[in-house]
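To: structure subgroup
Subject: Chain for Friday's discussion

All,

I'm putting the inputs and outputs inline so they're searchable in the archive.
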Amino acid sequence: MYYVHMKGHDYSYEIYEILTIYYPREKICVLNSIDEIPDDSMLITSSVKEEDGKIEFTSSLFYCNKGKKVKKQEYIFTDEPIEDSSYKEEAQALDKAYLKKEIKHGVKVSLFMMFRIYTGIEIPWGVLVGIRPTKIVNDLKRKGLTSYEIYKELKEKYIIRDDRIKLVTEVSDNSYNIINKDKKNVSLYIGIPFCPTRCVYCSFASYPITKFEDYVPKYLDALNYEIKTIGDFINSNFNIDTIYIGGGTPTSLNNKDFSHFLDSITNNININNVNEFTVEAVRPDTINAEKLKYMIDSGVNRISINPQTMNDSTLKRVGRNHTVNEIIEKYHLARDMGFKNINMDMIIGLMGENIEHVKNTVKSILDLSPENITVHTMALKRASKLKEKLIEDRDSESSLSILKSIDRDNIEGMMDYVYSNMKKAEYIPYYMYRQKHMVGNLENVGYAKKGFECIYNIQMIEEKETIIGLGADSVTKMVFLDENRIERFANKKDLDGYINTIEANTDKKIKAIAELL
C-alpha cells in the first residue's frame, strides 16, 4: 500500500496508473493530511502550482516511521512558459478540457520520472497507458508532422523508449493506408460466447458449452433475430467492409447449430462486397472438416486457429483439452480444404514458460507459415481464474512461482526474441494494442505476410470505421468521421439479459446507428 497526498489537484487515478506501471500489485490510499500516515509506510506527495507564468509539478517519495519522513526521491517537472499572460489569465481562454488533460499529463510525467530515477528501471512505453499507441502516431501524421517531429513527440512528451517508438511507427507505416476514410463503410462483429472450457487467463464473457448447453438454442434464436433485423437495416444504408465472428469459441457449436448460424448470416446480410470474413476457430478440438466446409461455402476467407503455446505441458496447465499435434493436424486440414489466410495466436508470459518454451512455440508456428501471427503479452485480468488465484493465494509458493515466471525482464527478452524472428521470416507488424495489467507494460502485436494484414483488426483499433456488434456482450462503436466523434451502444453482457431484451435492445440500436445517416 502506498499513501498519497495531493496538493493543487485531485488526480489520484493518474497517480495510481503510474504507480502500477512500476509496482503492478500495489494499491493507493489517498490522505487528507500527511499526518495521517501509519508507521513503516511509503508516502507519495504530488503537487501542482503556478509560479512565474509556469506550471510546476512536483512528486516526492518518503519513507515514514515514528513521525519522521525520510525523503527517498523527488522530481520537479516544469511546463513551458505561457507567453504574454499569467497562467490564470490564459486558463480562462483555454479550453478547460484541454487544460485539464495537460495538467493530468504533467502529474504523470513528474511521478513517472521520480520512479524511473528511484528504481533505475526504464519502462518501454513511458507514461503512455492508452491502449492504442498507433492512433497517436497516425493523428500526428494527419497533422503533417515529419518522421523526426513524430519521434520527438513520442520521446519527449510520452517518454517512450526508442525500440518501442520504432515498433509503433512501423505498425503505423504498414497500416496507415488501410484505415477507413468512407463514412458509409461499417464492419460487423458477431459474438458466440461459448467455449469447450474456460482458460485460466481468460476474462471474456465465455460460458463452458457443456454446462450451458440449454442456453445455446435460445441464444442462437435471439442472435438470429438481431442478425436479421440489423441486417435489413444495414443492407439498405451501408457498405459492409468486414465481418468478424469471435467469442468465446464460435466453432464450439455443434455442426448443425454452426451451419444454421452461418446460414443466418448469409441469408440476411449482403456479403457480396465484403472484403474480409473472419471466423475465430480458435481451439483445434472444436474444428472438423464439416465446419470448415460450412465456412468455405458461406464465404469465410480468413480463420484463426489459436494455439497460444506449442508446448503440451502449458496447454494442460492453462486448461486446454488438446495437444500440439492436434493443432498441427487441424491447421493442415484447413489448408487442404482451401483456406489461404490463416491466423495463429500466441501468448508471451504464460505461467511456467521460459525463453526455451517461447523459442519452441515461435519455431513451430513459423514452420507452419500462417499468413498472420498475433503475439499477445500475458495480462493478469481481473475477471480471470488466474487473477483470482493470485489474489487468494497471494503469498503461497505456487503464486510466487507464477509471478516469478512472468517477471518483466523475462517477458521483454521473450518479446524481443519474437520480434527479431518475425522480421527474419519477413512478417511485418501491422496492428498493435495494449491492455491494463499487461506483464512488463508491453504490448500485443499483429504480424502478417505482406498483403495479408487483417482489415478488421486495423479498423477496430484505429476507430475510424463504425463497428456494429451483434451478440451478448458486444459493443457497437458508431464513428462520426466528420465530427471525430464516437458513440457506443452495448448489448447486455449475460445470456439471460441478452435473450430477454433482444427485441427492445435491437430497436434502440437501430435508432442509434441511424444517427450516422
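Points worth raising on Friday:
Confidence is low (pLDDT under 50) at residues 81-87, 381-403.
The chain is about 40% helix and 20% strand.

D.
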